[in-house]
UniProtKB/TrEMBL annotation:
InterPro entries xrefs: ABC_transporter-like_ATP-bd, P-loop_NTPase
Signal peptide bounds: none
One Pfam family named in its UniProt record: ABC_tran
Protein name, UniProt field: ABC transporter domain-containing protein
Organism: Bowmanella denitrificans
Domain ABC transporter stretches: 4-99
């Protein structure tokens, strides 16, 4: 597969802090269309429509003309997701994309990716340590523990037990029945004032 064909089929968003000196947010998102342009990089009317739709979907229109490097980490992450959507690939691979987002932002981004996958017939594959949110929004889960992989749906007892096996600690346990992590001793949450 050529690099161009691969870029038309798979887009990637990493947790790396991307820097693009001199580029506006709009310019960074425009780069998502590069696999479809000619050697001069000329964008068509269709390209601009796809870009505008991606910016609306991820809610980055409000800072489209700002310098990319002036954005917070969370805003940059949204821009990189918009770039991936503008790339319009069948598969989007994302690595810990919610790492720089606050709780409402994490829920919103994960939800919009799920909606995008379902409405556009795309595959969204992401790695995440946000297990409770993943259990709520993912269609399928893969749990990797000590080199072994368990796969299934959130309602699958095997997956829930795999989560408990992989992430339970001395002080924290995963409760499969409610799909949440809890302190083993609730008194650990209470601390004496200094």
């Amino acid at each position: 597969m050529t690099a161009q064909l691969r870029a038309q089929r798979i887009s990637v968003v990493t947790t790396e802090r991307v820097s693009s000196p001199g580029l506006r947010v709009r310019d960074v998102i425009n780069l998502g269309r590069q696999p479809y342009t000619n050697w001069r990089g000329h964008l068509s009317d269709t390209d601009y429509e796809v870009i505008a739709d991606a910016m609306r979907t991820v809610d980055v229109l409000k800072f489209a003309n700002q310098p990319f490097d002036s954005l917070s980490d969370g805003e940059r992450q949204r821009v990189m997701i918009a770039r991936a959507l503008a790339q319009d690939t069948d598969v989007i691979v994302l690595d810990e994309i919610t790492a720089f987002l606050d709780l409402p932002g994490r829920v919103e981004v994960m939800s919009l990716l799920r909606t995008h996958a379902h409405t556009m017939g795309k595959i969204v594959l992401l790695s995440s340590h946000d297990l409770e949110l993943s259990l709520e929004l993912a269609d399928r889960l893969w749990i990797v523990d000590e080199g072994k992989v368990k796969a299934g749906i959130a309602e699958d007892g095997v997956i829930l037990q795999a989560i408990a096996n992989a992430f339970d600690t001395k002080n924290v346990r995963f409760e499969p029945a409610i799909r949440q992590f809890r302190l083993r001793d609730p008194m650990l949450a209470i601390t004496d004032p200094p």
